[in-house]
Pectinesterase
Amino acid sequence: MAKKMVVGLTASVMVGILCAGAIITLVHSTKIARHDFPSSIHTTSKARRTTNSLCATALHKESCELMLSKLAPKPSKQHPGLEASCVESSQSEIFTKFIDVKISELEKAVKLSADVANGTVGDRTAAAKADCRKLLTGALQYARAAYAHARDKDLKGLTAEAENIQHMLTASMTYMYTCVDSFEDTDLNAEMDGILSNATVMGSNALGVINTISSSAAKTKTLQPTSMKLMVYDADQHGYPTWLSPRDRKLVQEDSPKPDAVVAKDGSGQFKTINDAIEKIPANHTSRYVIYLKAGVYDEIVKVPRETKNVYMYGDGADKSVVTGKLSNVETQVTTRLTATFTVEGQNFTAKSIGFKNSAGAVNHQAVALRISGDFGAFFKCSFDGFQDTLYTHTGRQFFRECNVSGTIDFIFGNSAVVFQNCLITCNRPLDNQQNTITAHGRTDPNMKTGVVLQNCRIVADKALVADKEKLPSYLGRPWKMYSRAVVMESFIDDYIHPEGWYPWNGDFALKTLYFAEYGNTGPGSNTTGRVKWPTFHVITKAEATQFTAGPFINANDWLASTGVPNYLGFKA
C-alpha cells in the first residue's frame, strides 16, 4: 500500500520535491561573486527565458541574468526540463538567495572599509569614516531584515510582503550611498564607492527581481496584488482599522492624549530634556508611547534610535514647543546627516504641534533641522525651519500634513517615499550667489519605490525674498541622484518660481533618467508652457497622477489611520 502511494504521487508533486532539493542545495552551497559567473550556461531555452524574465526591470540586467543562470538547476537525463519547472516554482527561494549574496558582499565591504583613509590627516575625514562605518552597520541591518521577511515564504507570501521588502532593500542601499557621500575627498569617495560596488549591484538586482515578481502577480491576477493588500483594511463602524488597539484608537481620537512622559524646561514635568524622556522609554513596550513636550525652547540634539518604535510626541504648538540646534557642515566637523537637530530612526514615529529648527544660517550651508530614516513616520501641524538642507527625508515612508517647511537650497531632500499634504512650503532668501531649489530627491535605482510628492500645498516666497525674486531665482527642484523623482500636484505655486520650474544638478546629469511631473496646479507660477524641455519632465493626467496619491504611493491605507493624522488617500476633496 505504501509503495502504491509513493508511485501514485503526481508528476507535479514529484517535480516540486525535486525542485525543493535542488534549490536548497543551491541556496546553501552556491557562493556567487561578480568574478564567479560561468562563461557558458547549459540550460534549456525555456529555463533561460523564465530566469531571464525575472531580470526584466533590473538596472544591471546582464549581471542579474548571469546570477540567475548560476542558480538555475541543470538538466538531467532522468528529469529533462526539470530546471524550467524549478525556476518557475522557486522564485521566492531564488530571490532570497539574491539578498543572501548582497549581505555577503556587504559584509566583505564592511571589513575592507576599515582601511579607507588610513594615514589621511583631517578631522572631517575621520568623522566621515566613523559615520560611514555606522551607516554600513545600518545597511546590513536593513538587508538582514529584508532577508528575514523573504525567507521561507512561498510566492504568494513573498508577493504580499513585496512593498515592505522593497523599502528595506532601498533603505539598505540608501545607507550605503550615504556612506559614500560622507567623503568630500573625491579619491576617498571613489575608493569607498568601489568597495561597495558588488553589494550595490547585488542589492539593485534583488530590487529588480522582487519588482518583477510582484508586478507579474498583479498583472496576471493569479495572486492578490500587494497594492491591493495595502489599499484595503477591515474597518470598524467609526472607520478605524480593526487591528488598532482600543488604547491606540483612543489616542488618535484625542487632541491631547494622556502622556506616558512629560518634558518641561521649567521642571514641571518628569524630564527637563527630550533625550532623557526618550532614554527612559521601556525597551519592551508594545503600544504607542506618548511624550508631551510642554511649551519652551529645547536647545538639544535629539535622536530617536532605531530600536525605539511607536513614539507619539506632541507639543503646545509649532511656535511654542520648539527643538532647536545650530550644527552645520561648515562650523562642525560632522557629515550632513549628523547636523540634524532632531533625528528619527525608529519606526512608527508621529509628531504633532512641534517646531524643529536649525539656526546655523545660510552662510553655514548644509544644516538639517530634522532627519527621518524610520519607516511610517507622520507629522501634523509641525514646522521645519532652516536654510540649506532643512528637512532630510532620508529613507522609509513618511507623511506630512498641515506643516510649514522653509529653506533655500535642496531644503526637502533624501530618498524617502514621502507625501506633503496641505503644507506651506516657503523659500527663504538665499545668499547673493545662490538660487533656491525646493526638492532634491535621492533615488538611485529605477526599481526604488521612492519619491517626493507635494499635494495641495502652497508654495510661496518669504517677504525677504520677494523683492529679489528676479535676481535670486527659485525652482521646484533638481535631481540629486540619477533617478530622482518629484511630483507637484493640486498645489498653489506663486509667481516667484522661475518659468522653467526645474533646475539641473550639474550639466546634463540625470536629465534622461529623472522623473519630474506636475498635475492640476494653480497660481501664477503654475503655467507649464515655459517649463524645461527635458524628455523626463511631464505634465501628467489625473490617471497618471493617481499613483502618487498617499494611498498607493506610501501605502497609507496600511498604516496612516493609526497615527490619527487627518489625510485623504486620493485626490483632494
Confidence is low (pLDDT under 50) at residues 1-47, 221-233. The longest helix spans residues 123-150. The longest strand covers residues 409-414. The radius of gyration is 25 Å.
